[in-house]
Design a protein that fits this description.
single chain, 339 residues, mainly beta, Jelly Rolls, seven-stranded antiparallel sheet, six-stranded antiparallel sheet, 1 helix, 26 strands
């Protein structure tokens, strides 16, 4: 396969396997029921392993939440999370006092740096209809000289994310949302300032690709040896040049090679992750990602002592007022209101 530019094809597991500079990617898709007064599910939680509910039951999961689905307060250090919410909403709260509600096409880019606690809850705001949720959470590593920067998050609101549209010779369309990187004349919004993606020479790209049935699209090539992964998570049949990429499989690609995506009979959706490798040691212990074991031990001790600033919110499962729309309040007090 290597001569064709396809290094490896494999079935997707949980989490999705990635390559340096990425650590991993998860794809959450839940079909939550109507919400109750607490913004949790208006349905019985009986039979669920509350606090550790990752098994799909009736089309949805509670994850680590007890009343509201999601991920209550937990620490991060030494890397970044890129949370791309396709459908539904996420309530963010953190140990710096920052907060937000985002979704339905928005992306949050959070640099954990030297350490931060945050919660990511999925409020079920609609009490008269179901509350579907779909998101990607992508963990992007930080190089050693950025692992101890101050925590920071940036909001990439949907209306700031460019959509690159390409129509092939048969008038079939491919749309690419450029969440990171560049495609043609379309540039993604700036990521967090200390990110590996903030330097264009690292060629970090995060693209969501949607192809009409029968569409063809050529991936741009790079002159450099960068890691490129393609994830085919929705559709029926797809070819990379003349090789079959089965549904719910990933392909590790040589970004220097010419690769043409040829879609089959149904709309296809793919995620592309690429970037220049950092090429440093990686030692991961849960949410702590450093370079050496001793650094991980030191960081755990620091968190036990400081809790990375503590938790200023009334609940570890903090959700915002039901009446609020999409917004972000940053640690410096700056506020963004979208609706």
């Amino acid at each position: 396969m290597e001569n064709s530019g396809i290094i490896k094809i494999e079935k997707l597991s949980f989490p999705w396997q990635t390559q340096d500079p990425f650590l991993f990617c998860v794809h959450h898709e839940d079909f939550f029921p109507k919400g109750n007064k607490d913004l949790g599910p208006s349905a019985s939680l009986e039979g669920r392993m509350i606090g550790q509910d990752f098994n799909i039951k009736d089309g949805w999961r509670m994850y680590h939440g007890s009343k509201v689905p999601g991920f209550p307060a937990h620490p991060h250090c030494g890397f970044e999370t890129v949370t791309a919410v396709r459908t539904g909403l996420v309530d963010h709260s953190d140990s710096l006092g920052a907060a937000g509600r985002f979704g339905n096409g928005d992306v949050q880019w959070m640099t954990a740096g030297k350490g931060v606690q945050h919660s990511e809850m999925f409020p079920l705001l609609k009490d008269n209809e179901e509350n579907p949720l779909e998101l990607f959470q992508i963990w992007l590593n930080l190089p050693r000289d950025s692992k101890k920067v101050d925590p920071h998050f940036a909001m990439l609101w949907k209306d700031t994310i460019p959509v690159h549209k390409y129509t092939d010779a048969n008038d079939k369309t491919t749309e690419v949302e450029v969440m990171a990187g560049q495609l043609g004349d379309d540039y993604a919004p700036k990521p967090a300032p200390d990110s590996w993606a903030a330097k264009s020479e690292n060629e970090v790209a995060i693209w969501h690709i949607k192809m009409e049935p029968g569409a063809e699209f050529s991936l741009p090539t790079s002159q450099n040896k960068i890691n490129r992964n393609l994830y085919f998570f929705q559709g029926e049949n797809l070819k990379l040049n003349d090789a079959d990429l089965p549904h719910y499989h990933s392909a590790f690609l040589d970004a220097r090679a010419d690769i043409v995506l040829k879609n089959g009979d149904k709309e296809a959706r793919l995620l592309l992750l690429q970037g220049k490798p950092i090429n440093e040691p990686v030692v991961q212990h849960g949410p702590f990602v450093l370079n050496y074991p001793a650094e991980v031990r030191e960081t755990i001790m620091e968190f036990q002592k400081t809790e990375f600033g503590g938790w200023p919110w009334p609940s570890y499962e903090n959700v915002h007022d039901k009446s609020r729309g999409r917004f972000a309040i940053h640690a410096d007090g700056r506020e963004e209101i979208k609706e």
